[in-house]
Records
---
Amino acid sequence: MNTRHVFVEFSAADIEALRPLLKIGLLATVNGDGQPHLTLLSSLQAKTTRQMIFGQFTEGLSKGYIRDNPKAGLGASEVGSLRHNIQTDI
C-alpha cells in the first residue's frame, strides 16, 4: 500500500536546511488548469513553520499561482551537496 504524507508545516530541520544563502531550489506550484508549474530559484527560505519566502528575479508566473492556490511544494540543495528535500502534496 502506497501511503502519501502531506506536510503543512516546516519542521525545525526544514527551516535550518533552507537557511544557507547559496542553494538551488525548485518551487512547484499549480497553474489555473490544475497542472504543475516548476520554477528554478536560488533564493528560497522557510521564514516560519507555515511561511516560505522566495525571490523572483526574472518575470515568471509562480507568485500569481501561489496567490490563486497556495498549494505548493519545494526542494532545495545547498550548492555543492544534495542536502534536503521537502515534499508536499501536489
Note: The chain has a mean pLDDT of 76.
---
Amino acid sequence: MVGGVLKEFGPPKFGKKLGEGIMITLPVSREGVANYIGLTRESVSKTLSQLQEEGRIEMIGNKKILLKKRLIRLGIYNDF
C-alpha cells in the first residue's frame, strides 16, 4: 500500500528523476498518507523505516523521500 502511494506521488506530480533515483516531495504529512490509504501513521512510519533500513529509500526530513534505483529495479517504477 505504501509503495502504491509512493508511485502515485512520484513523477510527474510530486517527484523528480535524479541520477541516483527519484526524489519525491510528499504533498501531505505521514499522517496524511496514512489517512489516504487507511493505515495508522505508525504503520506508515514503520514501513518507511524498514525500506530505509533495506537501502531502498532514503528519507530526507519529513516530506522528502529518495527512491533509490534498487527500489525502482524491483518494479515500483518500471519507466525509470
Note: Residues 2-76 form a domain with the Arc Repressor Mutant, subunit A fold (CATH 1.10.10.10).
